[in-house]
Design brief:
Blueprint: H1 2-9, H2 23-28, E1 39-44, E2 48-49, E3 52-53, H3 56-66, E4 70-75, H4 78-91, E5 97-101, H5 107-119, E6 126-129, H6 147-174, E7 178-183, H7 198-203, H8 209-234, E8 238-244, H9 251-255, H10 262-269, H11 275-287, E9 298-300, E10 303-305, H12 314-336
Parallel strand pairs: 1-4, 1-6, 4-5, 6-7, 7-8, 8-9
Antiparallel strand pairs: 2-3, 9-10
Helix pairs in contact: 3-4, 3-11, 5-6, 6-8, 8-12
């Protein structure tokens, strides 16, 4: 109840920020302290809804570019991504924004994207696994995997795996701590242990759109927990954390007909965050000095928060990582034969 009241009132937490804080506000003080030539890679699925810039990824890219960070955007639709780049560079003429095509539901596309990025020979300081999708209907990727799970979790798992050594190497060479951020959701806590089966999620068994979305977001937190353990074991100067952006006025919310009906949308919208408020936690964890050394954590409203007991289960995190690694090894080996 206290957390709900704090959210509604927009009260600041220990970080000095709260639910009403915007991405620009949470990065304003730290921008003068940022190292030069930082590079951030951000994945985005959608950009434009009804003619207006819409999406946490686009806003995150805008604010990071405004703070002097080189931004690489991984987007499915390059035409719309170019419109976003134009808007960013109109506001920040010296911003460096690089666009690369990626379809996170496709292993081949993720591999191609990573090859193209590595060929640029840029440093990689920040990786933001932001892209997310919601589908009311059961759909499958080209690898015959349920689309929500493939896009929201598996694609980012493979992307992180393929770029991890680059992030670690950049941190080692520059002395600047690398940061990985997985954008999750508070609805990860809706998932019961009995409903969290790797094979069932792959095939979309007894499909329900909201449940599939929640399961994928739980998986992104478990991914954070296990990779954080591995990074600590390697003594790597890289952190990985999960963030809940809040319930934000984006296209994903419009697609959640089962979560917020049309008749309730107007009332519910008064409780929703703006795009800039939704991007604030991602930007805070990406750039703030207050998050130095923090890894394996879950943030909401720019403050460390508690995730579900299942999301905190280290054995479940390791099991999911092993199952995912085995699946990718098998599928990628088959693709090369």
């Amino acid at each position: 109840m206290k957390a709900t009241l704090r959210y509604l009132a927009g009260l600041a937490g220990p970080s000095g920020f709260g639910s009403n804080s915007t991405a620009e506000q949470v990065t304003e003080d730290c921008c003068s302290l940022l190292p030069s030539n930082l590079t951030a890679l951000i994945t985005v699925v959608e950009f434009l809804i009804e003619g207006a810039t819409s999406g946490i990824g686009a806003e995150t890219a805008r604010v990071l570019a405004k703070r002097g960070v080189r931004v690489v955007i991984g987007a499915r639709d390059l035409r719309k991504a170019k419109e976003v780049r134009e808007k960013i560079q109109k506001e920040s003429p010296h911003a460096e924004v690089i666009l690369l095509e990626i379809d996170l539901s496709s292993f081949a596309s993720v591999q191609r994207f990573c090859s193209e990025f590595l060929a640029l020979e840029l440093p990689l300081n920040i990786l933001i696994n932001n892209a997310g999708m919601y589908s009311q209907n059961l759909e499958f990727s080209e690898e015959k995997i349920e689309m929500t799970f493939a896009t929201n979790y598996l694609g980012h798992f493979l992307l992180t795996k393929m770029l991890l050594e680059k992030i670690i190497d950049t941190a080692k060479k520059t002395g600047i701590q690398g940061r990985i951020i997985n954008v999750s959701s508070v609805i990860h806590s809706w998932v019961k242990r009995s409903c969290f089966s790797f094979n069932d999620m792959l095939c979309g068994k007894n499909y329900n759109g909201t449940r599939a979305y929640a399961q994928s977001k739980l998986a992104t937190i478990l991914h954070v927990k296990e990779v954080a353990r591995q990074l600590k074991e390697r003594n790597a100067n890289v952190t990985i954390n999960a963030v809940h952006p809040g319930i934000v006025k984006t296209g994903i919310i419009r697609a959640h007909k089962g979560l917020i009906t049309d008749s309730l949308f107007f009332i519910a919208s008064k409780l929703l965050k703006s795009i800039s408020q939704g991007a604030s936690t991602t930007c805070y964890v990406a750039l703030s000095g207050q998050t130095d050394g923090m890894s394996g954590k879950y943030f909401t409203d720019c403050n460390e928060s508690n995730c579900s007991s299942l999301a905190n289960d280290e054995s479940e995190a390791r099991k999911l990582w092993n199952d995912t690694h085995a699946l990718l090894h098998k599928r990628l080996r088959q693709a090369t034969n």
